[in-house]
């Protein structure tokens, strides 16, 4: 009945951020409008919207244990390769970590927005193959 259509990210400089996301995350433009731009990921139905704001805004939240969490994540097929590529391109990235059947690392965009990059681990209950087996709404 529902699916995620778009993820929106607040940016303070639309032109700079557009180039950054196109370069590092290979998004392709759909359309630009006053104060924003829409993109698509070539291998995903979910779209990305960059929305220009006057000042940086949080793109993560604090959980009840005091840890930081992002509102969304991006799936990479080969997390080690992506981590190496982003590191070599000079991005600020964390180490790859294991989170109970999911490998991930975080990186920051030019506005300090935290982007969580994950790799689905076969056998994990969160792997898309496992989720596809769960009952669907009628």
Write a structural description.
The protein has 138 residues and is an alpha+beta fold. It has three helices and ten strands; from the N terminus they run βαββββββαβββα. The protein has helices at residues 14-25, 79-88, 128-132; strands at 6-11, 28-33, 36-40, 47-52, 60-62, 68-70, 73-75, 97-98, 102-108, 114-120. The strands form three sheets. The protein has a four-stranded mixed beta sheet, covered by helices on one side. It has a four-stranded mixed beta sheet with strand order 7-10-9-8, with no helix packed on it. A two-stranded antiparallel sheet has the order 5-6. A hairpin with a 5-residue loop joins strand 9 and strand 10 (114-120). The protein is globular.
Which descriptors would you attach to this protein?
138 residues, alpha+beta, 4-stranded mixed beta sheet, 3 helices, 20% helix
Give, in order, the helices and strands: EHEEEEEEHEEEH
Helix content: 10-25%
Main sheet characteristics: 4 strands, mixed
Q: What's the rounded overall pLDDT mean?
A: 89
């Amino acid at each position: 009945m529902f699916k995620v259509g778009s993820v929106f990210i607040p940016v303070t400089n639309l032109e700079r951020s557009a180039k950054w996301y196109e370069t590092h995350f290979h998004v392709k433009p759909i359309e630009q409008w006053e104060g924003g731009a829409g993109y698509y990921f070539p291998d995903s139905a979910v779209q990305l919207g960059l929305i220009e704001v006057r000042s940086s805004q949080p793109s993560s939240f604090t959980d009840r244990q005091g840890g930081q969490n992002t509102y969304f994540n991006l799936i990479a097929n080969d997390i080690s390769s992506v981590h190496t590529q982003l590191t070599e391109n000079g991005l600020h990235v964390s180490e790859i970590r294991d989170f109970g059947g999911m490998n991930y690392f975080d990186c920051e965009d030019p506005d300090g927005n935290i982007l969580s990059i994950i790799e689905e681990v076969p056998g994990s209950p969160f792997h898309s193959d496992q989720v596809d087996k769960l009952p669907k709404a009628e």
